[in-house]
Amino acid sequence: MEKDPDSKSITIYPSTEMPIVCPHCGVKGKIKKAYPPEKAFAISCPKCNKHIVINLNKRKSYRRNIEIEASYQITGINRPPRKGTIIDISIGGLRFKCLKSIHEKVGNVMSLSFVLPPREEPIKVYGEIVRITEETKTTVTMGLRFKDLGEYEEMEIGFFLKA
């Protein structure tokens, strides 16, 4: 696919009917196909006629974008809990934004405590850091894969994702 300088991309789950929102003008629409697509493709917006690249989300489970504050600690590091923000969550893990420190390393395990609306009681989960991306000079975004997710926590996250 040729890179158009005016092109923007969006990521969707492959299906025979895929809802989209044009990243240029905001018009909502649906793409209908006989079979779910297997690779990225490009379209032109019917309203503004701008180029849109449609990337496919190949994740095994649904991921929900959120903005929820969480307390966290790196296991094995003796320091008080710190605060950060969960920016998306799935049944398999989450993405987390926080201030950068020397303790956040791929392979480390974090404990996180947070409240999933509409609940009021916090849940506690453990996640292994699988990816770290520097956002700014002072913040990082980390991808965490849940470790030993308890039955209650899995149920609460599942209910939250379906709401």
Describe the model.
The protein has 163 residues and is mostly beta strands. It has one helix at 151-162, and strands spanning 8-12, 17-21, 28-32, 41-44, 51-56, 64-74, 82-89, 93-99, 109-114, 123-134, 139-147. Strand 6 (64-74) and strand 7 form a beta hairpin. The mean pLDDT is 88.
Strand line-up across the major sheet: 6-7-8-11-10-9
Major sheet summary line: 6 strands, antiparallel, barrel
The helix/strand class is: mainly beta
Instruction: Work out the helicity level.
Output: under 10%
Unreliable spans are: none
Order of helices and strands: EEEEEEEEEEEH
Please count the helical segments: 1
Q: How far apart lie the N and C ends? A: 37 Å
Give the tally of β-strands.
11
Computed CA radius of gyration, to the nearest angstrom: 19 Å
| Multimerization state | single chain
Shape: globular
Mean pLDDT: 88
How much of the polypeptide forms β-strand, as a percent range?
A: over 45%
Structural descriptors:
11 strands; single chain; 1 helix; about 50% strand; six-stranded antiparallel barrel; globular; three-stranded mixed β-sheet
